[in-house]
Design brief:
The chain is α+β, with helices and mostly antiparallel strands. It contains 15 helices and ten strands. Strands 3, 4, 5, 6, 7 and 8 form a six-stranded mixed sheet that branches. The protein starts with a helix and ends in a 5-residue tail after the last helix. It is globular. A hairpin with a 6-residue loop joins strand 4 and strand 5. The protein has four domains: 35 residues; 69 residues; 46 residues; 179 residues, Nucleotidyltransferase, domain 5, CATH 3.30.420.10.
Length: 402
């Protein structure tokens, strides 16, 4: 008989792409036994639990004519306030303190965004219709003509990944003096918007306890769920995980196993492949040990890769101290999850990958990671101020790398 933890380890391996033969080798079971587990023929104590959610419907009482008019006026003002929030951030002031010319420019954007009639726009902005029409007829002066082209160039050079702060930092590095507010205004006007993360889909996955676990060494206060994702020197504490990419033109998935240094977010080593097997994480571990000399703390989630005898033995041989997230606590590995989020927003989402093979994709992914280390500007806190530099450039500047 196989215990529950062994079965969970095998099912986790199958869920992450391992073949039935590879999963069977983890516990010494036959492939037929693994096939029965995969088909749902499990011990009786493993029962599914269904949670039913109910929606509460509240009835809105009927309104008389006067109340409905007040309600519609409030809704109109609320719509305008919501539409103007982003504009207020770009302009840096409230409508009451704007000049009539700026109110008119804002009013035109609000009309396009909300479709409301002009009388409601002018009433909201506290500007007369005659003043509004006067300023709308005047030709607008481009206050940012001197930096508009340079901003577009820096945004394009980043592959559309930079937001206004990093575009501003890139301009300063090239001797162009302009405030962050101006850069933000130009990017907004030109429609230069950095890639944003997609809304996450709900997942009920609660993790696995599994075999050969390890304590969470990064957890500082369990009651408040506080972690220490920092390191005093390079190569002291690293985090790792595995993520996958689905390509529309290739039935194979691409898997990435990186090792991230908590000192400054450097990608110490990584491995890519079309199989999420033990060889993938073994290659990553070998690269991390070669780059740092071993003897570091390595934190991971409770994936089956990090609970196999080969992984445990490999870490022990290199003097690597294992640390693992708690069961069902994905934020315990937030440092690595954050890297995956930036990677997929800046590199993967929003691009057309039709026609790409797995091999070509791996080459492109490797090039992005090199740029992430050597070309991407990152914000560092030094001496109480924010400094923008590349990860490798900062290490050379501080004498931590040749």
């Amino acid at each position: 008989m196989y215990d529950r933890e062994t079965i969970e380890l095998v099912l986790a391996a199958l869920a992450e792409g391992a073949t039935q033969a590879e999963a069977a080798a983890l516990c010494g079971a036959t492939r037929q036994t693994v096939a029965r587990w995969a088909a749902g023929k499990l011990p009786r104590e493993r029962r599914a639990c269904t949670i039913v959610y109910r929606e509460t419907i509240r009835e809105v009482p009927a309104l008389d004519a006067e109340e409905r008019a007040a309600y519609e006026a409030a809704m109109t003002e609320n719509m305008l306030l919501r539409a103007v929030l982003d504009d207020l951030k770009a302009e840096g002031c409230a409508p009451a303190s704007m000049s009539n010319a700026r109110k008119t420019a804002l009013g035109e954007r609000l009309r396009a965004a909300t479709g409301l009639p002009l009388r409601e726009i002018t009433a909201f902005l506290r500007i007369s219709k005659s003043s509004y029409e006067y300023h709308r007829a005047r030709p607008a002066r481009d206050r940012d003509a001197d930096i508009r082209e340079r901003v577009s160039e820096e945004f394009g050079a980043s592959g559309g990944r930079y937001g206004y702060r990093r575009v501003w930092a890139a301009l300063r590095a090239r001797g162009v003096r302009a405030s962050e507010k101006r850069v933000r205004r130009v990017m907004r006007g030109e429609g230069l918007e950095a890639a944003r993360p997609r809304r996450r889909r709900y997942s009920s996955y609660a993790g696995e306890e599994g075999l050969r676990g390890a304590p969470n060494l990064l957890l500082v206060d369990a009651a408040r769920d506080l972690h220490d994702f920092s390191a005093g020197r390079p190569g002291e504490a690293l985090v790792t995980d595995v993520t996958e990419f689905r390509l529309p033109g290739d039935p194979r998935k691409v898997y990435l196993s990186p090792c991230i240094d908590l000192y400054d977010g450097d990608v110490v080593a990584f491995a890519c492949g079309t199989s999420p097997g033990k060889a993938l994480v073994a290659e990553m571990l070998e690269g991390a040990v070669a780059a740092t000399g071993g003897g570091f703390t390595l934190h991971s989630d409770r994936g089956w890769h990090y609970r196999t005898p080969d992984w445990v033995a490999g870490c022990a041989a290199a003097g690597v101290t294992r640390s693992m997230s708690r069961r069902g606590h994905s934020p315990d590995n937030a440092a690595c999850e954050g890297f995956f989020g930036r990677l997929k927003v800046e590199f993967f989402f929003g691009r057309d990958w039709r026609g790409w093979t797995a091999e070509a994709f791996i080459a492109e992914l490797s090039a992005y990671i090199r740029w992430y280390r050597e070309g991407r500007l990152k914000a560092f806190r030094e001496g109480g101020r924010t400094v923008y530099d590349t990860i490798r450039g900062r290490r050379r500047r501080l004498g931590l790398a040749a």
